[in-house]
Amino acid sequence: MAEETNGDASAPEEGVPPIVINAQYTKDLSFEAPTAPGIFSVMQQNQPDVQISVNVNAQEFEPGLYEVVLDLSARCSVGDDVAFILELEYAGLFTLNVDDEVKSAVLLIECPRLIFPFARNILADVSRDGGFPPVMLGPIDFAALYQQEAEKQAAAEAEA
Fold this sequence. Notes:
Bacterial Protein-export protein SecB, 4 strands, 35% helix, 36% strand
């Protein structure tokens, strides 16, 4: 029996998983403790302040193959002193079998959600191995981040 197609290249193929993780890897990793060892005694007397930032980028690497980069950074300070700066770009290479109208959401919500646990583990290990308490990130709502970015873009387009 011959299979008919409607010529829609954006339609997902039946029986093929919607997301395939082909690879995941550390793209860039940086840790610095500019005030060590003096900061360790300061941390005994004052509560450290840790600021976390999260960013997600996606781009087509080859036709049908996408690189998604989860950019995480942690900056720990005690008063005016910087205890450490930790920056990680953790990436995944994904094959997607989804409709074009949901591809952006899948790339910026589902793909980072899949690689996030591995990136979170790297942050905890590197900060602990640097002599500090491990940075323990809680779950991240990538859907909310996606929505915030969409609202920013809509506002920018409305101003233009």
